UniProtKB/TrEMBL annotation:
It comes from the Eukaryota. Pfam families: Aldo_ket_red. Gene3D superfamilies: NADP-dependent oxidoreductase domain (3.20.20.100). Residues 18-270 form the NADP-dependent oxidoreductase domain. GO terms for molecular function: oxidoreductase activity, acting on NAD(P)H as acceptor; oxidoreductase activity, acting on the CH-OH group of donors, NAD or NADP as acceptor. Keywords: NADP, Oxidoreductase. The keyword Oxidoreductase applies. It comes from Lachnellula occidentalis. This is NADPH-dependent conjugated polyketone reductase. Belongs to the aldo/keto reductase family. The record marks K82 as: Lowers pKa of active site Tyr. The active site is at Y57. CDD domains: AKR_AKR3C2-3. Substrate binds at H113.
Length: 290
């Protein structure tokens, strides 16, 4: 899998396997889910060495167990976790608990899951200072944010000593967030896209169906693989997930072809004809494209 260089000099694999959505465990204190461990081991052995976890997914213990059982050396894996973005809590304590559950002594990437816990810009700035301290301790190689919009990033940038390396957002042709991605580029913040298959799976039927089919035929892949490639070909990181081994293997095909800039542009333009958001629906109005 290709690597993307981040603003702190570290590199991140451009395609990651997500422990959220389908793998989400609502009761994090319940006994370890052996099936979930098996699924994640399968994903690692299929070639997904970038694993996207989070405190709120309730499955850091399973992720840690899968890392051990996979037999892949820790340093060959790229492990992300996130501090809850809705709960007010002590950052150091939450991070220490995440490391303990994961059974790791460091993560490659630590993210603030969302800005929704903050009542004021100062709350965001204080949380970011905590993240900077964690990075300085060496226990998180890279730090970043998730679900931040421009005003949230602007607040953080006002006092930041370290620019966030990444903003992980829902991103697909039907949710392109206006000028947020340009703002990322201007500040050297990488974009990581979750929900990348939305236009090919959840939001069907839609204006992109025929284009995805045509391109899938041209490259001998599925529309899902076109959807993933559209993200990577914009210089972004893509996060996907599946419990289906064949599908995960097939998704590895995304490293074997590239869309032309014209095809990327065509998908972007057609995508703007429909608006669809699949996550955090309680935080955004139905017509909010930000
Ligand atoms: N930061 C955040 O707030 C946030 C929010 C959401 C997600 N994420 C992260 O991003 C990761 C990926 O998100 P996502 O699950 O939305 O990604 P996605 O890759 O867009 O969707 C994956 C889902 O699509 C299904 N799927 C794939 N191909 C399909 C097909 N051909 N037909 C029908 N269903 C198909 C998969 O089911 P099968 O198991 O059947 O393949 C899986 O449930 C999450 O796991 C999480 O780590 C982060």
């Amino acid at each position: 899998m290709d690597l993307l260089k981040l603003n702190d000099g570290n590199e991140i694999p451009t395609m990651g396997y997500g422990l959220g959505t389908a793998n989400y465990k609502s009761d994090g204190s319940s006994p370890p889910d052996k099936e979930l461990v098996k699924t994640v081991v399968m994903a690692v052995n299929t070639g997904y060495h970038h694993l996207d976890g989070a405190e709120v997914y309730g499955n850091e213990a399973e992720l840690g167990q899968a890392i051990k059982e996979s037999g892949v050396p820790r340093e060959k894996l790229y492990v992300t976790t996130k501090i809850s973005g809705t709960k007010v809590q002590d950052t150091q304590e939450a991070f220490a608990l995440s490391l303990k559950k994961l059974g790791l002594d460091y993560v490659d990437l630590y993210l603030i899951h969302a800005p929704f816990f903050a009542k004021t810009p100062e709350d965001l700035q204080a949380k970011w200072a905590d993240m900077e301290a964690i990075q300085a301790s060496g226990k998180a190689k890279t730090i970043g944010v998730s679900n931040f919009l421009k005003p949230d990033l602007e607040a953080v940038l006002k006092t930041a000593k370290v620019i966030p390396a990444i903003n992980q957002i829902e991103y697909h042709p039907y949710l392109q967030h206006g000028d947020l991605v340009d703002f990322h580029k201007k500040h050297g913040i990488a974009t990581a896209a979750y929900g990348p298959l939305t236009a090919a799976v959840k939001a069907k039927p839609g204006p992109l169906d025929a284009t995805y089919e045509e391109l899938a035929k041209k490259y001998g892949v599925t529309p899902g693989e076109i959807a993933l490639r559209w993200v990577i070909d914009q210089g972004m990181v893509v996060l996907t997930t599946s419990s289906n081994e064949q599908r995960l293997k097939d998704y590895q095909k995304v490293s074997q072809f590239k869309l032309t800039p014209k095809e990327v542009e065509e998908i972007s333009e057609i995508g703007k004809k429909k608006h669809f958001r699949g996550f955090w629906l309680d935080k955004f109005a139905a017509d909010d494209k930000s």
